[in-house]
Amino acid sequence: MSILALMIPITIGLASFFLFFFFWAVKKDQFDDLVTPAHSVLLDDENLLIENNNKQDQQQENI
Amino acid sequence: MDTTPELFEQESDDIWDYLDSSSFRSQFTSEESPSKIRFYIEGVRCSKCLAKIESARNQYPDILNTSMDMSRNILTVESSPEGRVAPFIGKLSDLGFVPHPIQTKKDHSEVQKKENRSMLLKMGIAAFCTGNLMTFSTSLYAGVSGSIGRYFEWISFLFFLPILVFSAKPFYTSLWASLKEKKPSVDLPIVGAVLIGFFLSTYHLIIHNGDIYFDSLAVLVLLLLASRYFLKRIQQSFMSSSFFLPFLNQDKVNLWNPKTNSSIPIPLESLVVDQLIALYKGQKLPADGILTSNGLTNSQVYLNNALLTGESLPVKTAVGEMVFAGSELESDFAVISVTATGQETRLGSLFEKMEEEILHRTPLISLTDRLAQNFTYLILTVGLLFFALYSFVDIGEAIRRSLALVILACPCALALATPLTQSLSLLKAAKSGFIIKRAEALERIHQVTSVAFDKTGTLTFGQFKFVDWILRSPSQLEKQIVLSLEHNSKHPIAKALKNELIGVAPIKELVSNAEEKLGLGVSGQFDGNLFELKSLSHSNVAQNDPAHTAIGLYKNGELQLGVSLGDRLRPESKKIVSLLAKLKIQPFLVSGDSRETVQSVGQNLGLKSNQIFGEASPEAKLKFVKKNHKTMMVGDGANDAAALAASFVGVAVKGSMEASLSAADVYLGNSGVQPIADLVLLSRDTMKVIKRNLVFSLIYNVAGATAALLGFVNPLVAAVLMPISSFCVLSSSLYGTSFLRSLSKKQFEEEA
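Above: the input entities. Below: the C-alpha cells describing the complete assembly.
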C-alpha cells in the first residue's frame, strides 16, 4: 500500500496543474467573451476584431 | 442669418450629429478615455455582420478602432481626439445594426467582469476539490477501511474546506441579503444543508463513527454554482436599464434676434427662460415655450408631438400657443419664447417620473423562492417534532436522523433547474428577436391578466401616410396631376402623397398656376380644366374612417376620387389583439391621441368601448397601469416611459425612445407587436417546465426526508440519489423548453 503515498501526491499535483492552467486562462480573458472569437476566426487576418480586443486590454493594463 | 425661405431649408439631416456634441461626450464618455464611446448594438449575430462593421470602419479614417463583444452586444468605438463618429454610426444604422449609446458613468461592465471571474475561479476550485474528493470517497464506498480509510476521510475533509470557505460564498451572501429583507430565498435550505452536513460529518470524522457527506455536498455546491453562473452570463448579455440616458439630440440652440431677424447658435445649457429661439425644419424643441412667430413668410407651423402625446397627426400650432420640448418641427420655421428648460420642461418631468418609478419597483418573490421558503419551514417543523419525539427513544440517533433530514430535504434540484430553464428561455427569446432583461420578467408575464397598448408607433406605424384611394384608383395622368399640384407644398398631406407616389415620374410644369391656399388645399390648371385637391366635404366622407383624413381630387368642382390618409395600423395588430383575448388576457388601448381617432382604431381592432381610452396623458397612462395591477404595458414614446416603468411588465417596441428602453423589462427587436403573443406563450411554457420540476423535486425531497427519518439513508444513498435527481430535472428542462416551444408555436400557427 506504500504506492498510495506516491500516487496520491501525483494525482493531486496533476489536478493542481490543470487548476493553475484554468486560473491562468481566466486571467487572460479567455472566458470573458465566448461568442465573438468563434465568429471572428472566420474573418480575414488583417484587422481582426479579437486582436483589437486584446490590444485594448493591454492598453488598459498599462494604464 | 438671413430668413429667406431658401435658408430655412438648412436642416440637419443627420440624426446622429449629436454624438459629436460636447455635451453628449461629457455625459457618455469616461474621463480616462474621452475618445471611446460604447453602444448597445442590435442585430450583430454572425461573422458576416462582424465583417461588415469592420469594412465600414475602414472607410472612416476618424475611427481608430472598434471592438465588438457579441456576448453582450456591445460595440466600443474609438475615434481620433477631434474625429467624428456620427458618420460611422449613421452608416451602421443604415446597415441595420441599430446603435444605442451607453452612458459610461453608470456602466458596470468592469464590475461585472470581475464578478464573472471570481465566480469562475470559485467554480474552478469547486470542480478541482470535488473531483479529488470523489476519487477518495469512491474508494471508501468500495470498502477501503482501517488506517488508510481514516486517511482518506481526512483528505476528503481537507478537500471540502475550500468549497465551504471559498466556493460556497455566493450562497452565504445572497442568503444574508434575503434574510435582511426577511424574505428567505431558496438559499436558506442550501446553506442549511451545507453547514449542517459539514458539522455533522466533521463530528463523525472526529469520533470516527457515523456518516460522512462531504462528496454529496461538494457536488451540490458545484452544480448550483454552475447553473447560477450560466443564468448570470445570459442576463448580462442583454441591455441593462442603467445603460440609457434620455438625451435630447441637440446641444446647440439658435438664439433669435428679432431686431435683425437673424439667429446665432448658443450652447443649450446657457439657454434661459424668456429668451427667443429659432427652430428650423426637422429640429426638436429643446425647451418648453410659447410660439411667438412663424417667420416672415407667414406659413403655418406644424409640430409633431407623437413622442410626447401619442398624437399621430402633426399639429397645426397658432402663434401664442404653448409648445413643449421634444416636439419636432415639421414646417419650415418657428420662433419660440422659452418658458422652461431642462428638468423643468414637461419632458424633463416625465423622465424624472420614470426614474422614480424604476426606483420604486416592487421586486417579485419568485415561485421557487416562495416554495422553498414554505418547504424550509415545513422541514424544520417536521425535524423538530421528530427530534422531540424520538429523543425519548435514542437521543444520539434522534440528532443524527433529524440532521440527515435537513441535508436530504435540500431542494437542490429545484435550485438547479429553475435558473437553467430560465436561461434557456431567455436565449430562445433573444434568438427570436426579443430581449428579456431579467429572468424575473418571464414569471411576471405569466401572471399578466391584461395588456395596455399604446397606439401611435406601437399598434400603428406612427407616421402620417397614405392609406387608400376612395371611390376608385387614379389613372397615371391623375397621379401626375396630384404630384404636380402638391409639388411645392410643405403640408404633411403633400409629404404623404409624394411618398406614396414615389414611383410616378413627376412632371413639374404639368399644372399651370398651381397655388396653395392656407387651409383650403391646392389648385391648378391643366388642359383648360381646374383641378383642386381639398378636403373631402362630400357625403362620401361617411365612408371614411374618422381616424383618417380624407381629401378629394376635384375637376372643375366635380369630385373625381378621394384619398384617405392617416396613421396606418400594423398588419398584425388585429390578429394579436384577438389572440390575446383567446389567451384570456384582456387587451386595452390607451392612447394620447384624440378620442374619436382612438375609438375608431379600437373598433377596427375589435375592442369594446370600455377597453378604449383616448386622450390619455402620460400621467393618465401611469395611473391606468397602477390601478390595473398585473398589466403589461406596450409602448414606445416618452409619454409611455413612466407607465412602462410602473407597470407589472413593460414592453418597449422597436424604434422606441431610449427612455422607454430604459424603463421596459422587455424590448422587441422585431418591428411590430407580433412577438407579444410569442412572449406570452414562451413565459407560459417556461413556467410549465419550472412547475413540473418543482413537483418532481418535491416528490424526491419528501421521499428522501421520509427515508432519512426512518434511518434508511446513508451517505452512499445520498451520493447516488442527489445526482440522479439533478439529472432528471436538468433533462426535463432541456427537453421541456425545446419541445413545448415548438408545440405551442404550431398551435399558435394553427389558430392564426
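Note for the figure: Residues 37 and 50 of chain A are 6 Å apart (CA to CA).
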